[in-house]
Amino acid sequence: MKKSITQLCRWRVRAVLCLLVLAVVLAGTGCDQFWINSADDIASKIIRHRQKQTLGTTSDSDIGAEDGRVGSRGDMYSFTPSRVDSKVPDSFRRPARNEIEDEAISTNGFGDAIPFRLSDALEYAFHNAWDFQTQKEDLYLSALALMTERQLWTPQFVAGVRGEYANYGQVRDFDHAMTAVSELSVTQRLPYGGEVAARVVNVLMRDIGRHTTSGESGTAILEANIPLLRGAGKVAYESRFQAERNLVYAVRDFEAARRDLVVDVAGDFFDLLAIKTQIESAEAARESAMLEQDRTQAWVDTGRLVQIEAKRIDVQVLDRSNDVNNARVRYETALDRFKIRIGMPTQEHIDVVDEELDLFEPDVTEHQAVETAIAYRLDLINTMDRIDDAKRGVVIAKNNFLPQFDISGSITTNTDPNKKNSLSYNTERTLWQGMVELEVPLDRREERNVFRAALIDLRRGERAYELAKSNVILDVRSAIRNLQLAKQSMAIQEENIEVNEERAAQANELLKRGRLSSSRDTIEAQNAIQASKNQYAAAVADYRLAILTLQRSCGTLRVDDQGHWTR
Questions:
Q1: Distance from C-alpha of 188 to C-alpha of 382, rounded to nearest angstrom
Q2: What are the C-alpha distances in Å from 364 to residues 368, 369, 370, 392?
Q3: Residues 36, 64: contact at Cβ < 8 Å?
Q4: Which has fewest Cβ within 10 Å: 299, 368, 386, 557?
């Protein structure tokens, strides 16, 4: 007895050691990385294939490499993580020196900054933009869900081993025994309802005290269960239908988000270019005001103008210097905001530069634009296709009214009980079973309510499509109006610049001839020139953005992964 217990303990120790060695081997071979790479490879192939089927082209949707590690930060299991010190830093407890520098505010040196074109910004945003990475992950999660659903419709293999130790004392011929049960099964779901399964179960019993096999048997089972009415047909395949279509919706949503990102990044980029133009305009206005200051002071010294005119031009110089500072601060702030939008660290030194863009106003009528949008807008197509999802829901609800009428059967074969061999099957001991089951619920109120709710969902889907269609038409018409407005504004401001430059030239000429006793007209003309140039720069930015907005509204905006427009 004591010897048997010792042997049992040794066997358990060996088993535990084997398991530990196996765990170490799996950890050392990068088990996490294997699963991650496997999922990424399959998901990427599914996404690219579905993009090609749905959109006719593919775009980068890679969510980036992952090693499966969660880090070793100590606060992960802390009850009070990330404590904040109540003491304020010393630099915030003393007043700043109240000094004002005479020079204009610096822009961190444009000369040291990296030139950044719109195509560079778009390419960078496609790989790093915060919100866009979430869109990529949403698409990836839809692919994972489809992978899981597809796997459920393939043969499901399961293997298991169960060990049991029992000490019977004086009840049995042997005082303690070890029983091992192994099972191997495979199950296949049928696309029109039901499933087929096959199982093999082996049982082995050992007398530990005598070191003999006291029993060994095997059982093979083949069984099937198939519905004929309720749950039969295409309704049984609904989860697969929905998962496949959900990935299509996710692909369209991802592409729509990608186009939104293009418009948003381009809009910010155009605004930055406009602000840079405003900086140049403000600097030119300041230089002009300083020249006017010198000339006015000379005329004051000669008695041609009174001293108040010199003071007026001094104020003009200060105002123009303030305009330069304001424009530079706006540029720096807008540039930081732009960096955040594209996922770039704000510490990076970049300077936006203009480039020749293949942008033009499309030669389409409002009717053509609306018809194109109805056919091409991805969000509208998704809303339309979801009506079919709701229709399938109605079909499923109708199917639930049918009685539960299933047929099932099984074939069971056991091994010969007179032989201690789990492979010695005896066909004469085969058991054939068949069953027909009919269940007719008398209370159909739950099914009635589900059916009515499905019809409501269908009507909601139809209304949602009509509403989305109306909003698409509104977007297109609004985009066309904004494009025309920006075009007209650009022409008006261009003419304003010419008029104000002529006005300034005339005022300067009259002032030189002494026909004006005040520099007020000259100052007003210079201010008007600066305002016109600023408004023209803003109008150019609005016009470019309006073209992209119209293309997005019509569903015709195409940009490759390198940030270049495609036709």
A1: 32
A2: 6, 6, 10, 38
A3: no
A4: 368
Reported in sequence order, the residue ranges of 305-383 that DSSP labels E, i.e. its strands, are 350-352
The strand pairing partners of 114, in sequence order, are 350
The strand pairing partners of 213, in sequence order, are 206
DSSP state of 111: G
| 526/414 Cα distance (integer angstroms) | 104
The amino acid that residue 250 corresponds to is A
DSSP-derived secondary structure letter, 29: T
Helical H segments across 102-198, by residue range: 118-128, 130-152
Tell me the one-letter amino acid at 220: A
- Please tell me the predicted confidence (pLDDT) of residue 454: 96
Number of Cβ atoms within 10 Å of the Cβ of 479:
21
**Choice between 506 and 185, residue whose per-residue pLDDT is larger:** 185
pLDDT tens profile 85-132: 888 888 887 887 766 554 445 554 556 789 999 999 999 999 999 999
Residues 390, 458: contact at Cβ < 8 Å?
A: yes
Whole-number Å distance between alpha carbons of 399 and 228: 11
Lowest-pLDDT range of 27-36, 148-157, 195-204: 27-36
Given a cut of 70, whether residue 73 has pLDDT beyond it is no
CA-based nearest residue to 125, from 319, 314, 269: 269
pLDDT at 170: 59
d(CA 517, CA 307) in angstroms, rounded, equals 12
**Residue 30: both structure tokens together:** 């990068």
531 touches 504 (CB < 8 A) = no
Collapsing DSSP to helix, strand or coil, 105 comes out as coil
Spell out the residues 6+ positions from residue 133 whose beta carbon is closer than 8 angstroms to its own: 63, 64, 343
Q: Is 29 exposed, middle or buried (0-12, 13-18, 19+ CB in 10 A)?
A: exposed
Q: Which residues contact 232 (CB under 8 A, 6 or more apart)?
A: 192, 193, 194, 226, 399
Q: CA–CA separation, 343 vs 338, rounded Å?
A: 9
Q: Where are the alpha helices (DSSP H) in 57-214?
A: 118-128, 130-152
Cβ atoms within 10 Å, residue 196: 15
Q: What is the pLDDT of residue 300?
A: 72
Please give the mean pLDDT across all residues of the chain.
Answer: 85
Full-model pTM:
0.85
194 contacts 225 by C-beta, under 8 angstroms: yes
